Amino acid sequence: MTAREKVIDWLNDAHAMERALEEVLQRHAKDAEGEAEVQARIERHIDETRGQAETVRGCIESLGGDVSGSKDAFAKMFGAMQGMANRPMADTMLKNALADFAAEQFEIACYRALIVACQEIGEEDVAFRLTDILHEEESMAQFLDQHLPGAVRAALVDSQ
C-alpha cells in the first residue's frame, strides 16, 4: 500500500468516525433538552460534524479515492448502539459529557495525524481543509471541558 493509499484509508476512517458521531450527538442533543446552552452547542456541532464528513469525503475524492460504504455502515451502526448505552440513567448528562469529551480528544488526535500525513505526501490543500476541521473539534472540546464540572455537580445533586 502506498503512502497515498494509506492516507485515503485513514481519511475513510475519519469519514466513518464523523458519521458515527453524528448518530451519537443526535441522541445527546435529545438528552440535553433541559440544558438550552448545551443542547444548542451540541446541535451546532451536529451541523459541523455533517460538514466535516462532507469535507473529508471531498478530501478522499481529491486524492483519487472512494468513500468506503462498508466503513460508513459499520460506523453508523456502532454510533446508534453507543448512543443508547447510557439509557436510562440519572447521570446520563455526565456520561454523555465524558463520552463526548473523549470522542473530541480522539478526533483532535486523528486530525493532527492526518494533517501531518497529508503534508508528508505533498497534499497541502487537503491538510489545510483538515486544519479547519481540527479547529472545530478543538472548539467543541473546549466547550465540553468548561461544562464538565457543572455536569459532575448536577449528577451529584441528582443522586442525593
From TrEMBL:
**Matching Gene3D superfamilies, A to Z?**
1.20.1260.10
Kindly list any coiled-coil regions of this protein.
none
- Read off the Pfam families from this record: DUF892 (PF05974)
Protein name as it appears in the record: Ferritin-like metal-binding protein YciE
Species of the source:
Promicromonospora soli
